[in-house]
Amino acid sequence: MKKYFVPTMMVLLTATTCSFAQKENNKSITIENRLQTDPVSLQLPAFHSTKNIEGKAFELQNLLQDNQLEINELQPAEKDNLKWNGENLQWSKTATNKKGFTGSKSAENSLLFYASYFSADEWMQAKLIIEAYPLLEVYIDGEKKISHYKAETDDAKELSEELKIEPGKHCILVKVVSGKKNDFKLGITPNKPWDENNIKLSLSPQQSVTIHKILDGENVRNIELSSDGKFALLSYSRTLPPSDNSENWKEIQEIESEKILYTFRGSQLANIQWLPTGNRISYTKEYNEKTSLFIFDFENGRETEIANSIADFSDYNWTPDGKQIIFSVTKDYSEDWKIRKIQGMEDRLPWFRTRSFLYKLDVASGVKQRLTYGTITTSLQDISPDSKYILFSQARPDYKEYPYDKQNLYQMNLETFEIDTIWKDKLFGGSAQYSPDGTQLLVQAGPSCFGKLGENIGKQPLANNYDGQLYIFDLKNKKADPITIHFDPSVSQAVWNKSDMNIYLKANDKDYIQLYRYQPTNKEFNALQINSDVIGNFSLSADGKNIACTACSISSPYKAFVYELASNTSKLISNPQKENLKNVKFGKTEDWNFTKEDGKTIIGRIYYPPNFDSNKKYPVIVNYYAGTSPVERSYGGRYPLNLYASMGYVVYLLQPSGAVGFGQEFSAEHQNNWGITTADEIIEGTKKFLKAHSFADADHVGCIGASYGGFMTMLLQTRTDIFAAAISHAGISDITSYWGEGYWGYSYSVNASGKSFPWNNRKLYIDQSPLFNADKVVTPMLLIHGSVDTNVPLGESIQMYQALKLLGKDVDFVQVKNQDHHIKNYTQRILWNNTIFAYFAKHLKDQPKWWENLYPDKNL
């Protein structure tokens, strides 16, 4: 068998004034420096001279076209190792000859790899040019741009490709099958109006964060501990570019050794969870559109089916003794229709006619019994520690009384099916779980769940019931103790530990999300020390000794930790994005707060570009949500502010009044304000920020927000002219139409405009709606909206666009096809992101070409 000798090398570019071609009077930047590895060998396939079924023999170009290595994963640095058939090849620095040729002395028909990096500080167009003798392929960021499949012996073949280069660093890879002449010259020629100064070449793969670094790679989503805390069930996901598909799977990891014991990648199993006793898992499988339940025992490796043929199965929970399962059956009672009567406001929602009811499965006998029935969905809240009782609730709309939603909570004896009513027709009903001894309930709800008992809102007339609170409710005397009434963080998750009798909770503390321990004996809250800013999900092991959680920070994606309660120490067990981000450099982030004239402090933070220079001037992007949730200090998200900073902007993020996590009085300011206080705080904060920072270019300041933040973007432009560009995604232009049309319009308004309506508060609904003040707008504005948004209907952007157009204002409107309130489709998310960047580049950097390329004017 004939062998091919393969020196594999990666060549990196450095800036040079040398030019081997003149294109449109711009200089071409040529290759001069490189990295390369030691040579390796490659074999031809067996029967390579035999023609295949299509009558073709194996050719040298097939060696070139074979995918020996993942091209898009090759981003070497000097002294990195390249793994090749069991060998570690180290990258070393070298250089081409003075003419810019590779000068390779490789044996004929050898396979070689070359690489280079180049970066652009703005969107630009250029021509990639190569003059080559050997067979080769040229890739940029893993995408093939040029192919040359015929070896030249006399004159080098010149090939070129027009490039549209996005800001940031890019990797060029050249894959060569050597021939009698192996020389090639590679260059990039910027098109006018750009020149060679717009492109910089280097030997380092270090780069700023990109949208692909945020969206791609493996991500840990959830973690659950086995009953003894020795094993973790981890949930992962990853995108599958360039498609819009994604993959989700689970793995079981041993905590101490960090070994992966089982993976459910590609499995048809669903609803995987730990049993409350022993190292066993349960899961479901689908057969003929019906569900079967199984147990798998790790100690004996045995799978046991415990139930089958369950129609309309939705979810399940184990009783603490592991002898019974409480499961839900969910059915959609909607009908095909051509015309129908809507029975209440919620009936227009597609899921309103879906009903769910509870069943019990006795594991030993396989007997299934129905627990609930009727016209209203019954939702399981908890199972008692002795496995004898369940808590379940019913919720229904009630249009006669604010806040128009009522909840009943019941306790059922699982043996006799007898029911006790815990509460009936409670306003702002929440979730409930048993105390370890079963005599009390831990209730998570809003401040008004028990009337004024849990409210601490100062002079504010109405509480914001998105501000999560905890109560201990005594089942015997039916009295509640508001344990978080003087605890400012807003609670979103809690569990009562039967081992140490403490309550562990996750809560928004301003823009942090932290884990806390509450000790009922001394009524103290203490934060658990986990080295992250934002806790995602957390779970407590059944033995109560360990907590598992996912967590992230501003410049660090979600990781998985296990926290040992006895020692108060945490252990990192999963960091799937480590390799993906190893060459990414983030800019600095720091807090920046300001004090209003009334003495209130508004917190915020600054994101700096990488390689920030305080002597330069930078355009500024101001970001906010301004709804009832703070913009947490998380990585990525809808608006990845690290990414904005990497594009050369200073980003100022502030948390205006009305957000939870700052205390009930602060969050209650969201009620019946609809942006007036918030807008003025954003304006005041922006002015003070610009005055305090000489590097901030006050003439090039943009603002951006989504949903309620999109509403704020529109409202701000009716109250100030300090912004040079404004972007509203899924914003509300008319509070009245949103209140009536949005799926959550009137229910959200319970906490945004409580007891106020279009007919009794015209000043709020009309005077504070941006649509009715459109004539005051002077700032260029971009409106972006998903075409099937049900939360904030598309019409909110349409009517504002129409108003601004008729008024002769500078406005653009971009729809994202078949996307709802969030842009989740992978390729559309990238296009949406680039739309935002291109618009800001046009107005804040005086660089309109990217926008013009994305959205060229058509002669319509």
TrEMBL record:
User: Does the keyword Repeat feature in the UniProt annotation?
Assistant: no
Under Pfam families, the record lists: PD40 (PF07676), Peptidase_S9 (PF00326)
Keyword terms of this UniProt record: Signal
Question: Molecular function terms in GO for this entry?
Answer: dipeptidyl-peptidase activity; serine-type peptidase activity
| Stretch forming the signal peptide | 1-21
Superkingdom of this protein's organism = Bacteria
NADP found in the keyword field: no
Task: Please report the stretch or stretches of sequence annotated as the Peptidase S9 prolyl oligopeptidase catalytic domain.
Answer: 642-846
Q: Which BP terms from GO are recorded?
A: proteolysis
Designated name of the protein: Prolyl oligopeptidase family serine peptidase
* Source organism of this protein record: Labilibaculum euxinus
